Amino acid sequence: MRDFVALGAIWGSSFLFIRLAVGDFGPLATTALRVSIGAAFLLPVLLWRSDMRLLRQHWRALLVVGVLSSALPFALYAYALTFITTGLSAILNATTPMFAALVALIWLRDGLGVWRSLGLALGFAGVIVLAWDQASFKATGGMGPLLAVLACLGACMSYAVAASYTRLHLNQVPPLVTATGSQIGASVALALPAALTWPTQAPSATAWLAVLVVGVVCTGLAYLLFYRLIARGSPSRTMTVGYLIPLFAVVYGVLLLDEHLTPAMVTGGLVILLGTALASGLVQPKR
């Protein structure tokens, strides 16, 4: 239980550190640094515990997973955090299991049933509440907040596609190999875009510290903790850590960034969590 709560706290803090880094580095450079530092942290562990042969054998699939599960969604969240709060972005992140259920239905032909279908409908209703809120009270700020919401949803869809792709192509590969290989793949994919968008002014010490923490702690260490939890228990139970992330992210944002909760965030967040719990099968009402 301690590791479970710790993982929720760590991943919840990632939105805070990205927010602190992205202003100086920009979305692409922040993301490239995050995955590169994460890969550098994980690679020695992989060398110690496993065989590098698997990295070479599955490099194409690992590159695809790296783009879908890290490079693209991390960059989208970094962009989103230049317009919306860490709490809202974390609440939207909780829709990932809902999108995963939808992608699995379309791609893998995984059946949903009545309750899981209802969960999808509820989850999307919660998203509409949040998107409507951003489009209305932020209207004077242009399309930035609404595009940020769409970027978060695009990131969640990318996570969902990555999950089904991994299930199809990397199901027999040890999780540590997948984690390390995907971060290496993401680093390769982002190297050129990050170089082309590298900031002209030197980033502050705070930004460097933030990106170092998000790379080492929120990526490298978090993956090790995540897969240790999977080894100790069930993967489905471990995935429920996603329900803790918005709670921690909102608390961090309120306490450390002076962010505020809106009624729409509370309402939409609760509807999303209920819908996602139904869509992912975590909650199965009795007939």
Rg value: 18 Å
Mean pLDDT: 84
Give the H and E element order.
HHHHHHHHHHHHH
Question: What structural class should be given to the helix and strand makeup?
Answer: mainly alpha
What structural keywords apply?
about 290 residues, mainly alpha, 13 helices, about 80% helix, about 0% strand
Short note summarizing the structure:
This protein has 287 residues and is mainly α.
Architecture overview:
The chain is mainly α and 287 residues long. Helix content is 80%, strand content 0%. Helix 4 packs antiparallel against helix 8. The longest helix is centred in the C-terminal third of the chain and has 28 residues. The model has no long low-confidence stretch (mean pLDDT 84).
Secondary-structure map with pairings?
Blueprint: H1 2-25, H2 27-49, H3 53-57, H4 59-80, H5 86-93, H6 96-107, H7 113-137, H8 144-169, H9 175-196, H10 205-232, H11 235-239, H12 245-256, H13 263-279
